[in-house]
Amino acid sequence: MSNAKREEKAKRVKAKETGGKAQKFEELLSSYETGLKGFREGQIVKGKIIRISKSEVLVDIGYKSEGVILLSEFTDPQAIKVGDEIEVLLEQKEDEAGMVVLSKQKADRARSWEQIIEKCEEGSIVEGKIFKKVKGGLMVDIGMEAFLPGSLVSLRPTHNLDQFIGQDLKFKIVKMNKRRKNVVLSHRDFLQEERLRKRERLLKELEVGQICKGVVKNITDFGAFIDLGGIDGLLHITDMSWSRISHPSEMLAVGDEIEVMVLKIEKAEKRISLGLKQKTQSPWDEVGKKYPLGSRVKGKVVNIVAYGAFVELEKGIEGLVHISELSWTRRVSHPSEMLAIGDIVECQVLNIDQANEKISLGIKQTETDPWLLVEERYKVGSKITGKVRNLTDHGAFIELEKGIDGFLHLSDMSWTKKINHPPEFLKRGKAVETVVLSVDKAKRKISLGLKQLIPDPWSDISKRYRIGSIIKGSVTKITNFGIFIELEKDVEGLIHISQIELDQSADLKKLFKVGDTVKAKVIKVDDIERKIGLGIKGLK
After folding, report:
1. Which of 84, 281, 425, 438 suits 419 as a labelling partner, its CA being 20 to 30 A distant?
2. Which residue, 309, 321, 369, 327, is CA-closest to 347?
3. Over the stretch 290-303, which tens digit does the pLDDT of each residue have?
4. What is the value of pTM for the model shown?
5. Cβ neighbours of residue 98 under 8 Å, at least 6 residues apart?
6. Is residue 322 packed enough to be buried (19+ CB in 10 Å), middle (13-18) or exposed (0-12)?
7. Are 301 and 345 in contact (CB under 8 A)?
8. Rounded to whole angstroms, how far apart are CA atoms 377 and 375?
9. pLDDT digits over 206-215, tens only?
10. In the chain, what are the domain boundaries?
11. CATH 3.40.50.80 fits 44-108, yes or no
């Protein structure tokens, strides 16, 4: 082969080799450019950590340049190492320095949002950490940022939201906008549901007679509400102590931890009644042995009411002295007239009602009953002087001695006079002599008579005042229907207006005066009604 042919062949081979390399480079370049075009901003891509510094991590995602991620974006910086594959979010293909802008946190949140969309819905329970305060509430990291309104932070309104920052809590998703990737949370709703769950569980677990621990949640005038760990029970003031207390705050304060006994469970109403005193033996168990009927005891007056006084015999044991059991003789309108709180008094046990935890006491029983001797001291028919203590429509009460009254009825005041009102005949405080008519020791009554001090003048009145006879007497009373004339002591006659010669316009009170002496004729004598009728017509 000639040299010319050899040179031409060599040129063809060289051209062929050069053309093949160019084609391979073009294919490589085309493939590389296609790979670069496959990356888009906002995309989550995989990358490999190629270097770790004090504050940054260099990541290769297979792009024309590496990306830098702040070390603070990693939840556990100590756990990462060179060569680890991680998912990152491509925020920007190239910044001013020609570097790819990547974010580990945003990739994690994007993945979390996908998981939230996949696993959760409104009403789901999620865990998260409150990391900052914003207008109207707080922001919570649940794998992505979620909003917690201030009104949904706790069961009770709170104005200090800063105290919740940094806390890991559970929340209920109350609103989810998938298009805007917006989530609204409520810790309050979670707490309410948790409380309901605990309440239902406790209602099933609690039993009457069970001793359980609780915390004083609230105090009222009638008792205290105890939080048993999800459900409240009422500890009534009467179940706090065997002894008397005026207010629950004397024994308890909000926040106190106490042990109580379950007394009653009303599952339908979800009400629990609790007791504190029931943890100890009732002092009433042996009250019959310690305070037998008829025994005398000493105690302290702890309360006074209109109907009596309560006397404490020992802690948890009180008896009632009824107002009627204070004195044999004194008429007591209110127990405070005889007793004061703190007084030490001696009483007699009158009755015990152990089932209802009641003791009836008497103070007057520690003294002799004056009515026991009344029949001996006030014999029927005897005369006795007493003081008019009180006047009624029907008569007068005469005090014979302290605590002993006799009653003088209207009908026993005069044989002859018609007495309509006791004040016409007697005055309060005036001493008066009477006769004992009857004594009823059982009913504590003594009947007295005033007219019985003298003989009944009507026994021979018809003989002394015969019809037609003329008599004289003095005017004692003037009425619109006539005038009364005293004929002798305790004997009166009536001159009816029809028996007086008068003009139609005449006024008796102008014609007659009390004390005037009047001459009259006897026109009627009624022994049964004890009335004497008089007339002055035709008399001069």
Report:
1. 438
2. 321
3. 999 999 999 999 99
4. 0.46
5. 65
6. middle
7. yes
8. 6
9. 888 889 899 9
10. 1-36, 44-108, 120-192, 206-279, 283-366, 370-453, 457-535
11. no
